[in-house]
Each structure stands twice: as structure tokens, then as C-alpha cells.
Design goal:
6 strands; alpha/beta; six-stranded parallel β-sheet; single chain; Rossmann fold; 9 helices
């Protein structure tokens, strides 16, 4: 099954590396490059251009905002939808002010990427001592870099409120969130799952905002179940 994977802010293909390997027997994964454009519609069009007519779509965080743009542009092409650690809401005024401040710092030459000080917002407390993991998260942000960070933040600031669109999503949907996610906490996932007809909600233990990297094997297993479960009532075991 063709599978489009959408990374988050300051994330690249490394985010989904383990899932690409783990799911090769059941899917043909493609990780989109979300670093080139400064709007989610443009990101969605670029991603769509690299996919066949029908495909499954999995996204994390900012990738979820792109996923909503894909659904606005081509809902008939998405056979299944998985949304990890994301929100359907636009920024609050506080969030928008903070985001603009970070963009101003970056434009002034003070791009910090992901520093050790920011890691507690991204990772479960139990994972902060994992030096290999923390180094990979920081290196990923550095690879994405300052210009792409500014483009991504511009897109995030201008995104619409996707909550009114949730009821019209027809693709069988998995909504998942790390139990300790501080950036898009579980109540955001609950809101999305409640709004999409028949959506299944899963909370991933031992994870913060980055389950594909923090707990790669359970995340891959959950995606495999989502990809291979027969559609219909109760399409995932233990579903909502």
C-alpha cells in the first residue's frame, strides 16, 4: 500500500526512519519534504505530486496541518488517515506571539534549532537520558535549518481552523498521541477523534511529542495494525 508520511516542524525523514524499515512488507512509504514551501497548501500540492492516485496518509504534529490541507485538496485520494500528536486548532494569541518572536530571533541570526533546554518539551521525561535519541533530535533540527524553520513557522501562523472540517473526513482514521506530549497534549487528540466519524484514539505510553523516535517499535506496530485492519465497524481492535 502506498503510504505518505508527513514530518513535523524541524523534522526530516529521520523522524519516520524506523517505520519506513519496519513497514516495508506491508507498505511503500514515501516521506515528504516539508522544508521547501511557506504554506500548507503548497506543501500538500508538492506531496501529492509524488504519490499515486490512492494512498494512506500518516502525519505528525505540523505534518498533521499538512494532512488537513491534503484532505481539503484531494480527499478522495486518501484511503486511510493517521494523525499523531497534532491539533486541529489554530494558534492562540499567546502561541502566535511566541512563534513570531522565535521567527524574529531566527531572522536575526539566532536560530537555535532544538537545544537541550527545549528537549523536555519534546520527549517523555524517561527518554531525556537517552543520549543517542536526544542527539538525533537536535541533529535533525540542524539539518532542517533556519530558512526552512522560518518557512514552516510562516505556514503554521497562517493555517486555518480545521475543526469545522473534521466531521467531513470519510477516511478511516487513527488518532494517536504520546501520553506526556506537552506541545499537543492528549486533549487535542481527543478533540480530533471526537470530531471525525468512527475515528480510533490511542494514547502511547512512554512517549512525549515524538513517538516514532521515542518508541519506534510500538509506533510501527500501531501503524501496521492501522494499515492492515479490515475496514468497517470496529476496524481496529479496541477502537473507540
Amino acid at each position: 500500500m502506498p503510504l505518505l508520511l508527513l514530518p513535523g516542524l524541524l523534522c526530516d525523514a529521520r523522524l519516520w526512519r524506523d517505520q519506513v524499515a519496519d513497514l516495508s512488507a506491508v507498505a511503500e512509504p514515501v516521506v515528504a519534504d516539508l522544508t521547501v514551501d511557506d504554506s500548507f497548501e503548497a506543501m500538500a500540492r508538492r506531496a501529492l505530486a509524488h504519490m499515486p492516485e490512492r494512498f494512506a496518509l500518516a502525519a505528525l504534529s505540523m505534518g498533521g496541518y499538512v494532512a488537513f490541507a491534503v484532505l481539503r485538496l484531494a480527499p478522495q485520494r486518501v484511503t486511510r488517515l493517521a494523525l499523531f500528536d497534532t491539533s486541529a486548532r489554530p494558534d492562540s494569541e499567546f502561541q502566535a506571539r511566541r512563534r513570531r518572536g522565535l521567527m524574529a530571533l531566527a531572522r536575526g541570526g539566532h536560530f537555535r534549532g532544538v537545544t537541550p533546554r527545549l528537549l523536555p518539551q519534546l520527549l517523555h521525561p524517561d527518554n531525556l537520558a537517552d543520549a543517542a535519541l536526544t542527539e538525533e533530535v537536535m541533529a535533525m533540527a540542524e539539518r532542517v535549518g533556519r530558512p526552512a524553520f522560518i518557512r514552516q513557522q510562516t505556514a503554521i501562523l497562517n493555517r486555518p481552523d480545521s475543526r469545522p472540517e473534521l466531521g467531513g473526513i470519510a477516511a478511516p482514521t487513527l488518532v494517536a498521541v504520546g501520553e506526556a506530549d506537552q506541545l499537543t497534549p492528549p486533549d487535542r487528540a481527543q478533540e480530533i477523534a471526537a470530531g471525525i466519524p468512527g475515528a480510533v484514539l490511542r494514547v502511547l505510553p512512554g512517549c512525549g511529542h515524538l513517538p516514532p523516535m521515542e518508541r519506534p517499535a510500538p509506533t510501527s506496530a500501531l501503524i501496521r495494525e492501522w494499515l492492515t485492519s479490515p475496514l468497517g465497524t470496529g476496524w481496529m481492535q479496541g477502537g473507540a
